[in-house]
Design brief:
By secondary structure, this protein is an alpha+beta fold. It has 4 helices and 11 strands, in the order ββββββαβββαββαα. It has one domain. The protein has an 11-stranded antiparallel sheet with strand order 1-2-3-4-5-6-9-8-7-10-11. A hairpin with a 3-residue loop joins β5 and β6. The termini are far apart.
Length: 238
């Protein structure tokens, strides 16, 4: 059963009141960890119900085998990211080194960064693209608490897309990549038809991965107004 929490109220200099809300699809038992659940956090004006920012997170049942999905939504843009775990040894090239297109960040724990092929599909339509996948050894994830043990060689992996919207101020000079445009189109198609969004990630050296975001379940767990703010009510900047 979904659990709605009003976290608090924020007051601006103009005395407008914004409420902070959290909805947990599958609340844990007392003291337990949230698993296999959508968690929604958003801030909305209590007078107009206008949403100012939102976060939609899916926490998997078993993070050691399944991905986490995050939509971080702001007035001008939305970031869509996928996080999962991989063993460092499986990512190494034949010379036993890790590819790292961002080697200058290795001292901060970002030890892997390489291009992977990705196919995203939904409702009979698909797109193929090349994306950057990163891996770091500082932590497994900062999105949620997990009982997966941080062991030597286990990396927190991620890739993401940014959707820049028409509300973006022109002086920022923001644009959208082809990959972001394709992903945005497929996400909205999935939402329109309540169909799952599937991702087939080429592992490069590691095993290939198949990820699936349960869109119909997300629509049941997340307020429609939040989905509208994050995706369906938005248009990409030209």
């Amino acid at each position: 059963m979904k659990h709605l929490i009003a976290i608090g109220l924020l007051c601006s200099a103009f005395n407008a009141v914004a409420g902070e809300y959290q909805e947990i699809e599958n609340p844990p038992e007392s003291g337990g960890l949230i698993k296999d659940s959508f968690v929604v956090n958003y801030t909305a004006d209590d007078f107009t119900d206008k949403i100012d920012e939102a976060k939609i997170l899916y926490i998997p049942k078993d993070f050691s085998k399944q991905p986490a999905f995050l939509l971080r939504c702001r007035p001008y843009y939305t970031n869509f990211s996928v996080q999962y775990l991989e063993q460092e040894d499986k990512l190494k090239d034949s010379d036993e080194t890790l590819a790292n297109a961002a080697a200058s960040f290795a001292k901060h724990g970002f030890v892997y960064n390489a291009k992977h092929d990705l196919k995203i599909s939904t409702d009979g339509k698909s797109k193929r693209m090349e994306i950057l996948v990163g891996g770091q050894n500082n932590h497994l994830t900062k999105l949620f608490k997990t009982d997966v043990e941080k062991s030597p060689g286990l990396l927190g992996m991620s890739f993401y897309f940014t959707f820049n919207y028409q509300e973006m101020p022109s002086f920022r000079g923001a644009t959208n990549t082809d990959e972001s445009e394709d992903t945005f189109e497929l996400l909205n198609r999935a939402l329109q038809n309540s169909q799952p969004l599937r991702m087939e990630l080429d592992g490069r050296n590691a095993p290939d991965r198949d990820f699936e975001l349960d869109i119909k379940r997300m629509q049941q767990a997340v307020p429609e107004s939040v989905i509208d703010f994050c995706l369906t009510g938005r248009k990409l900047i030209d």
